From TrEMBL:
Pfam families: N6_Mtase
Protein name, per record: SAM-dependent DNA methyltransferase
Keywords recorded for this protein, A-Z: Methyltransferase, Transferase
Organism: Amycolatopsis eburnea
UniProt KW Transferase keyword: yes
MF annotations from Gene Ontology: DNA binding; N-methyltransferase activity
Amino acid sequence: MQHRAGKAGAGDPINAECHALKIAVKVTEAWHKGGGPDWPEVPLGVVATLAVASLNAEPTAGFAEWVQARSPAEFFALARLVWRGVLLRQPDVVRMAAPMLGWLGDEDEKFADRVKRTADAALAAGQVELTTGDRGFDADLLGPVLGALRSPAAAQVNAQMYTPGDVACALTSVMLGDLRPGQVFCDDTVGTGGLFRAAAQVIRGRGLNPATMTWYGADIDELAVAAAAVNSLIWQLGPNVVLYVGDPLADADWSATADRQKAQFHEQVDVLRRVLAALELGNTPI
């Protein structure tokens, strides 16, 4: 099951959810304008890119207007720069988000125009205000975006349901008992991470830092898990986020499998860094 929450800055989860839904509708309309393949991973990746790019931006400083003024080619360059930075800081996030980042290498003019039109629509609908800084804690924007982009057939196959943010927070607050740093949270139907967001809000409300916790999440939907990986950045869940794409019912020990996959990936990254250093290519972004 996937989860959804919601307008940033106001501290009102209902307004946040309405804002997220508005952006999702505008993004979907812009992406499908003029026709073309569905490819929901592309507009989802565009919104994710804008979210990561705006994490340290100030909405009043004209960030949205600056991005809107970029050409499609300039936007692609910005997007690659954004994900290069994430790769340097938290490479595992890029590993899990990869299913919605394939478009970064395709700059066909018509396709690039479509991508930029989608980004502009998200910005015009107020995405920066929803995902900047602490405002991002109040929303799961990627959940509604993914839901809106799914074709009816795809949505039926994935059986996606989104838990409203206020409901998720209420349920989580009741379920969580005493909290302590290092505690483990596990959701084997993590979707885009809505229950993680709700738990993080409860943790902050009790004076603790979500980044001191460990988060395990699994889902059969790789795009939902990709969104959850990006949401872990937006919600500042910290480095101890372990995600798994697969059916938890088919792998009772999926969390251990996910741990191994993450560890093996980091070993490969470390080996590659050493090889690049030996070849005097240490400045290569990896």
